[in-house]
Amino acid sequence: MPNQPLRAGIIGLGVGKAHAKGYAGNHGAQLVALCDTDELRLNELGAQYGVPPEGRFTDYKKMLSEARLDLVSVCLPNFLHADATIAALDAGVHVLCEKPMAPTVAQAQDMIAAAGRNGRQLMVAYNYRYRADVRWIRRVVESGQLGNVYHVYAAWRRETGIPGSGWFGNKQMAGGGALIDLGVHVLDLTMWLLGFPAVTTVSGDTHSLFGPRGLKTWGRRAGQPATMTFDVDDGAVGFIRFANGANAVLEATWAEHRQPKDDLIHLELQGTNGTVVLNIANYSLEDTLRFYTEIEGEPVTIIPTIRVSGPQGHEALVIDAIRSLVEHTPPPSDGFQGLAAVQVLQAIYESARSGHEVELNTQPNAIP
Ligand SMILES: NC(=O)c1ccc[n+]([C@@H]2O[C@H](COP(=O)([O-])OP(=O)(O)OC[C@H]3O[C@@H](n4cnc5c(N)ncnc54)[C@H](O)[C@@H]3O)[C@@H](O)[C@H]2O)c1
Fold first, then answer.
1. Cα torsion for 19, 21, 22, 28, to the nearest 10°?
2. Residue 50 Cβ contacting ligand 1 at under 6 Å
3. What is the phi-psi region of residue 270: left when phi exceeds 0, alpha when psi lies from -120 to 50, beta otherwise?
4. Strand, coil or helix: 14
């Protein structure tokens, strides 16, 4: 109905809390329902955002049948993304699903099919697109100031960053480790900044060196043995060729020996007219960029000062998702973009297993 705020809900209230902020502050939507099997989390967030007890659910299927939602954020552990997303789409509800879209290509394709048969929007939550410095890089690429971008180096590396509890180290529940958890963000940024060229080949390798020994794990003392299942990668590297001739090196680690507490996102786009480098140290928002070029035959280093204002990250992402539904503008990201990342990640795992390069043919971007 026009002018009515969208009725929004959230399933899974870990990072789901960050989605709540976006819904709460936006006039286009009203946060009316929350779901989590953890009743403490559920009631705390319900109280914080004024969601009354009748809007609080421990069963998402009950929530989908009773809460009359227009839009729901799926913020569950990875292995539940497909089930919950398809249930929501089949109930006629638009979905904003956390990354990675799904642990397998088959699940991601099923999610796209559900969106298609129900005529509902399926969006994937890539909050790092909503940083002011990243959006500046996008404008620089689009304006042609880098020339032809022929190489990207994209990495997220942590010194001590293995999630210490829960499902993240469990392959059955997470689908993978550092690669699928952190690598997916910088992979998406790479493809988004390049305009989603088709991927032709992928190769890669993974290792699991620290997690199984209980090392470099959040909340665990040095040398304390691992008590949780850990059967995923804690580090990975990939090499990706695109149909437009560009290539990318991707690295993701939850753990490595380096400067203590380092948590670094590094993105480097090399073009024929210039290189732009993004260095985000421990989630910093300022002094993250360098632009290298030549002027009159001499190397020049430019230090952009990006003004950070208004909502960033998840809050901006949720606002954009709402706007896309209300104003019928392109969604923040669609299922095809989510699928492309899952295809590349799966191909890196396949290459690591087989020791061979994997051929792919991802569909170029469905939206601008
Ligand atoms: N975009 C980002 O930067 C970002 C950051 C963190 C996590 N994530 C993604 O968000 C998802 C969730 O991660 P998290 O860190 O919030 O995990 P988490 O374990 O902190 O939270 C998951 C929540 O889901 C609840 N839950 C589990 N099974 C449920 C079920 N069947 N029904 C209802 N609730 C259920 C749990 O009780 C828990 O509160 C993952 O896919 C992860 O990759 C994204």
1. 120
2. no
3. beta
4. coil
Nearest alpha-carbon partner for 321 in 120, 113, 54: 120
Q: Are 364 and 197 in contact (CB under 8 A)?
A: yes
Q: Is any ligand 1 atom within 6 A of the Cβ of residue 178?
A: no
Beta bridge partners of 325: none
Do residues 25 and 321 make contact, with C-beta atoms less than 8 angstroms apart? Answer: no
For the chain, list the domains and their CATH numbers: 6-125 (3.40.50.720), 129-312+342-359 (3.30.360.10)
Residue to probe by mutation, ligand 1, list 17, 63, 73, 98, most atoms within 8 Å of CB? 98
Give me ligand 1 centre to Cα 76, in Å.
4
Q: Are 125 and 10 in contact (CB under 8 A)?
A: no
pLDDT mean by block of 10 residues, the chain; 368 residues: 84 98 90 98 98 98 98 98 98 98 97 97 98 98 98 98 90 97 98 96 97 89 69 98 97 97 97 98 96 98 95 96 95 94 98 98 59
| pLDDT score for 25 | 82
Length of the chain: 368
> How far, in Å, is the centroid of ligand 1 from the Cα of 304?
35
Q: Is the shortest distance between the CB of 59 and ligand 1 below 6 Å?
A: no
Given this model, what pLDDT does residue 62 score? 98
Nearest ligand 1 atom, CA 314: 1
61 in ligand 1 pocket by Cβ < 6 Å? Answer: no
Of the candidates 172, 135, 194, the one whose C-alpha atom is nearest the C-alpha of residue 337 is 194
Question: How far apart (Å, rounded) are the C-alpha atoms in residues 203 and 107?
Answer: 22
Nearest CA to ligand 1 atom 24: 12
**Phi, psi of 180, rounded to the nearest 5 degrees:** -80, -25
